[in-house]
Each structure stands twice: as structure tokens, then as C-alpha cells.
Amino acid sequence: xxxxxxxxxxxxxxxxxxxxxxxxxxxxxxxxxxxxxxxxxxxxxxxxxxxxxxxxxxxxxxxxxxxxxxxxxxxxxxxxxxxxxxxxxxxxxxxxxxxxxxxxxxxxxxxxxxxxx
Length: 117
Prior knowledge:
This protein is of the alpha/beta class. 38% of the residues lie in helices and 13% in strands. It has helices at residues 18-35, 51-66, 78-87, and strands at 10-12, 39-43, 70-74, 92-93. Strands 1-2-3-4 form a 4-stranded parallel β-sheet. Helix 1 (18-35) runs parallel beside helix 2 (51-66).
């Protein structure tokens, strides 16, 4: 029988300088190692919508990936979410279904009286 996935730990994320960012990444690594979770929820409520916040989240994602996990961003400012999309950093947002390939062999509904062309 498979063991249930441990709950994702939550890491509050605030604007960080380079030294603070290193400590934040160490905290993320420690939380993931201690819990064995494959997801780390990053509470981005306090992050401003700027490139420093994008850098912080990118570094946290890289740290998580190196441990075999990933981050899920909680409550980002809508402008930060747009900025993440603009720079091409595809992070999963909490409450958002992970984007995957559509299921195969799905047919669209059609009109039975409309012959196929």
C-alpha cells in the first residue's frame, strides 16, 4: 500500500536581499528534507510585483527542483502573476490545476445530423 503524500510545508516569502535569499533557500531545502514533501507552498502575499520577487521565486523553484520537489505559489499579487507569465517563469499557483497534456481520444460533441466533411 502506498504511503500518503506528506502535506506541503508552507514558507512565507518576503522581499529579500542576496544574503536573505540564501537563507530563504536554505530554509526551503531544510523544510523539504525534514518533511519529505514534493511540494513547497510559498506564501507570496508580502512580495511586491517586481523583478526581485521574480528572482526570489525562481531561486526557490530551482532549490526545490534540486531536491526533487517544486514550489506552489500562494496568494501572489495579480501584477506579480502577470510579471511571472511575461518573463516566462511557469510556476504553479495554489488552486490552479497543474497544466498537463489533454487526455487522448476525446471527441468533441457534434451534430448527429451534420455529415462529416
